[in-house]
Amino acid sequence: MKLQGKFIIANGAILLFSYGFLFIYSSQKQHDLIYAQATQQARMLHKQILLTRKWVADHHGLFVLQSDRARPNPFLNTPVIHSASGQVYVQRNPAMVTRELSEYAARDGWCMFRVTSLKPINPANTPDEFERASLLRLEKGDEKEVVSVENSQEGRILRYIAPLEIEESCLNCHAQHGYALGDIRGGLSITIPIKWADNIIHENNRAIITYGLLSIAMVTAMLFWLFSTLVSRPLAQLTSTMDRYPDQPVPTPKHKLVKDEIDSISDTFYDLCHRLDTSRETLDTTKKQAFQNEKMAALGLLTSGIAHEVNNPLGGLLNCVKALQKEPDNPQLVERYLPLIDKGLRRIEHSMHQLLNFGRNTPLDLKKIDVDKVIRECFELLSYRMQKIDLQLDLYLNECYCIDVEALRQTIVNIGLNAIQALGDKGGTIRVRTGARDNCIKIRIEDTGPGIPPEILDKIFDPFFTTKDIGVGTGLGLAVSYAQVEKMGGTLIVGSKVGQGATFTITLPAKQKCPLKA
Length: 518
What we know:
This protein has 518 residues and is of the alpha+beta class. The protein is built from eleven helices and 14 strands. The chain folds into three domains: 58-196, Beta-Lactamase (2-Layer Sandwich); 245-344; 362-518, Heat Shock Protein 90 (2-Layer Sandwich), CATH 3.30.565. The two termini are 48 Å apart.
């Protein structure tokens, strides 16, 4: 998944979590607020009803004209009285006033309330399950009120009940029932519908969800646009520039008025590429110079030895020329010395030709060559230093391969010189074997010298590392050889045991194709 997708998903998850937490928190707070308001409403209603009951009790009840709606209460001592004019009045005690007020409130859908008791005188005041359980709790005296929210067919309701204690004005009626001042006669039960509050909470929650989803969508779209403009697109451009480097130069960064972190990365990458280009140019120059220095050092060693090969026939040639100059008309001398002069000149020409081929400085150039032939030429070039050395050439390639002849010649000569120097004046054996296997060319150069100590075996390919005396070697021969073999796509490894000589193995690809020349 792209960074942009991860960023959007992470921010969307954070927003969703935040809005979800806000939704749950606000929903709970709304519920608590409605619950607290309904409870406070029940307490206020309870106070008002108590005041009304107290007023009725203080006046020893109310008498109203008898009608179809105002019938006598058979549970009262004085259910009816007659006026002098013959009108009939029926008595209303606090319990009846409470009941009738509740009926009015119920018709308006506001609330319901009634008096209930565990020992009701009027069966209509028999408690339901909630009221019975609440009255038992209230009688223990640990609680002053009981509040509960229940479900009903019309929606949720808040149930509230508080105790009714016997006061002085209540004794007129309840003393005969065995109650004393301060006793709990029963409870005032109040029921308040809160369906309207649930509807409000539902609407608020739906609005919160709607606006939350809209805001998440808007924020996500804005973040997507901002990330794409400020991060994704610049990173894609920077990645494309990185992919094209070093085949294409890195352009100078173009920044906005205010630089950000990505602009800083672009500047750093540009500076890094600039330093890499400079370092590469310096390294290429140093490698070319090191290669040339090592070649010249090897060439100097070869020249000093081949000078002897040239001077020997050259001295004989001079003697032949002097003899011919003294007797130019002597046919016997001409017949005798001309073949010697021709042979000596050809020997000098062959030596010079080998030196010119070895000293030529050319870039890596792959072409079809006879590898075995090149190896023979290299050791012919080194033959002047191999008077006490037994050279064994086991060459079995027998076909041409796509190899850089100059790089191979330089490598063979460097390894050969190291082997000759390792054998020293005592002499020994150098064995060269070639073969093809698993699409690879194998060239093994073994000597019977003293070998390479283990502590320096992993250092012999390091530039300027040498164990030779000052002026004898530069420490670049094997390093250059290693680089040349690697440049041709091959490997150069060494194996050695102290006292048993050293073995250098060159492995080159056999199926490499030479480039077509125009």
